[in-house]
């Protein structure tokens, strides 16, 4: 596989500058040797989706945690650019963590930025498959997006059955998902720079990213997916949100060898 570390288009047609919204939570003791984490949200989500639970929890475990809101109207190339630039601005080599379409962005950013490690949560790497799953589980909410309108996601798609109805409705009210045609590709992710350890996590009960897609994504990076049954697509907002983030941080400490000073 070919890396995209250098691209001619970056010189001939540079991504226009944009103000970036980054939400951060820092640990009380930032001298534990942990790398910073950069969370990239999925379609229609912003940094708020991680700020709700995961950023503070990661900071409580000693990680400087940052979440980047995608630029309004930005295409995939612009989003990848923003992730690379934000990661490069952090004081240490960064772990990239993307959810949904944010995982697609991270998979592209890995070919441009030498990440310490990466985590792809419920990754939408095959847009056609995700669209087909959405049409089957929520046809009336999905059809408008096929013609350029808003994707109206349902609580049944995004969360497990234990999340209170009022809480689910409040989250969905904040999601403004408008898929771009470029996200419907099926191209395999480019080769990461430096072959960082990469984890794929998700739920076998996700109604947007099916189990087969999780297996395929994990196999691409040489592993098996870490699964959280009973949860929906938005693992970071669902009732059991603490289990996935703890498992991700544990994996960083054990499998990726990022457990503390000297690593």
Walkthrough of the structure:
It is a single chain. β6 (198-202), α10 (211-220) and β7 form a beta-alpha-beta unit. The chain has a single domain, classed as Rossmann fold. By secondary structure, the chain is of the alpha/beta class. The protein has a seven-stranded mixed beta sheet, sandwiched between helices. The model has no long low-confidence stretch (mean pLDDT 88). It has helices spanning 8-12, 48-51, 54-60, 76-89, 101-109, 127-137, 139-146, 155-158, 165-174, 211-220, 242-254, and strands spanning 21-25, 37-40, 65-69, 95-99, 117-121, 198-202, 226-227. It is globular. It has eleven helices and seven strands. The longest helix is centred in the first third of the chain and has 14 residues, at 76-89.
Indicate the topology.
Layout: H1 8-12, E1 21-25, E2 37-40, H2 48-51, H3 54-60, E3 65-69, H4 76-89, E4 95-99, H5 101-109, E5 117-121, H6 127-137, H7 139-146, H8 155-158, H9 165-174, E6 198-202, H10 211-220, E7 226-227, H11 242-254
Parallel strand pairs: 2-3, 2-4, 4-5, 5-6, 6-7
Antiparallel strand pairs: 1-3
